[in-house]
């Protein structure tokens, strides 16, 4: 089933959980720590930064590469998601041959039933990505819980670009009493400040250049928010995208960072964050910025 030839790599690569779990048992000692970086592959600098941090902070680091079907609400998005295992392995080897890679099949994870478990994340799942991608966070919760059970990490690293996902994973771990420290890591950006994402690979060079408008608008909105109402800030962002026909704004939300609930007025003691989802022609991109 796996035609790729990785014979000249010293990295440990596992395609099945049974072998991975057995191997982790042999390397674990009473006080040793396992860092974990779950990914869907098509690795970019942002992923590599998560791995670097894990390598630095833990005795061992496990990376998973698995395009999880249950978190895609759009079959075309799933079909088109880049799958680049061979290049991904090369990138990881440059970083460190100490990385332990888990690249399971759908069968290894779902055992014949490719369905999500239903979760209650105390409402975190109802906003933004949850609203526009029905079932997405049940899929994320299902796969991350499964991966945490298999890898039993001490620390697990997630990028803040998917801030809502990060909060949901923290909630999932807490509600299931999983002894893992979920660590949020800063967004990695391209030279033009576009947030790094595997989806950027699908943009044309022209679209990639123009997508700089997303972060530019977020920083302008942050500045405006210091002296304006949420409503005025939202109107400014909506107008910025209306003026450019390549872009379709799906949502721009200003929310309380802890509850992710949209706000209509500010309260001095709270932390706020702006969230955005935009189509650049047919490619959907998300980004976020702290407003404090
Ligand atoms: O952020 C991602 O790439 C995915 O949602 C994750 C956390 C690997 C789960 O499939």
TrEMBL record:
ATP binds at residues 40-47, 159-162, 196-199. The active site is at 47 (proton donor). Pathway: Cofactor biosynthesis; (R)-pantothenate biosynthesis; (R)-pantothenate from (R)-pantoate and beta-alanine: step 1/1. GO terms for molecular function: ligase activity. Keywords: ATP-binding, Cytoplasm, Ligase, Nucleotide-binding, Pantothenate biosynthesis. Beta-alanine binds at residue 71. It catalyses: (R)-pantoate + beta-alanine + ATP = (R)-pantothenate + AMP + diphosphate + H(+). Its main location: cytoplasm. Its EC number is 6.3.2.1. It is found in: Cytoplasm. (R)-pantoate binds at residues 71, 165. It is an enzyme of class 6 (ligase). InterPro entries: Cyt_trans-like, Pantoate_ligase, Pantoate_ligase_C, Rossmann-like_a/b/a_fold. The reaction proceeds by a bi uni uni bi ping pong mechanism. Belongs to the pantothenate synthetase family. Homodimer. This is Pantothenate synthetase. The gene is panC.
């Amino acid at each position: 089933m796996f035609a790729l030839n990785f014979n000249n790599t010293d990295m440990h690569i596992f395609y099945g959980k049974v072998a991975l779990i057995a191997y982790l048992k042999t390397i674990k000692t009473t006080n040793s720590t396992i860092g974990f970086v779950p990914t869907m592959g098509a690795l970019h600098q942002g992923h590599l930064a998560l791995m670097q941090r894990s390598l630095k902070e833990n005795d061992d680091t496990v990376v998973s590469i698995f395009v999880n079907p249950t978190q895609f609400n759009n079959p075309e998005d799933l079909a088109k998601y880049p799958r680049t295992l061979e290049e991904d392995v090369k990138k990881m080897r440059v970083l460190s041959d100490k990385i332990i890679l888990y690249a399971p099949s759908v069968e290894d994870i779902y055992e014949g039933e490719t369905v999500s478990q239903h979760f209650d994340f105390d409402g975190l799942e109802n906003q933004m990505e949850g609203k526009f991608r029905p079932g997405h966070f049940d899929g994320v919760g299902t796969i991350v819980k499964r991966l945490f059970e298999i890898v039993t990490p001490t620390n697990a690293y997630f990028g803040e670009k998917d801030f809502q996902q990060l909060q949901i994973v923290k909630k999932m771990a807490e509600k299931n009493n999983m002894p893992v420290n979920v660590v949020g890591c800063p967004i990695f950006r391209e030279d033009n400040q576009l947030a790094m994402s595997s989806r950027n690979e699908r943009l044309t060079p022209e679209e990639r250049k123009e997508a700089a408008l997303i972060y530019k608008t977020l920083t302008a909105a942050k500045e405006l928010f210091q002296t304006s109402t949420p409503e005025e800030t939202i109107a400014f962002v909506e107008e910025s995208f209306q003026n450019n026909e390549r872009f379709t704004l799906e949502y721009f939300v200003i929310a309380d960072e802890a509850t992710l609930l949209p706000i209509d007025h500010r309260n001095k003691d709270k932390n706020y964050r702006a969230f955005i989802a935009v189509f650049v022609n047919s490619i959907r991109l998300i980004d976020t910025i702290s407003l404090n």
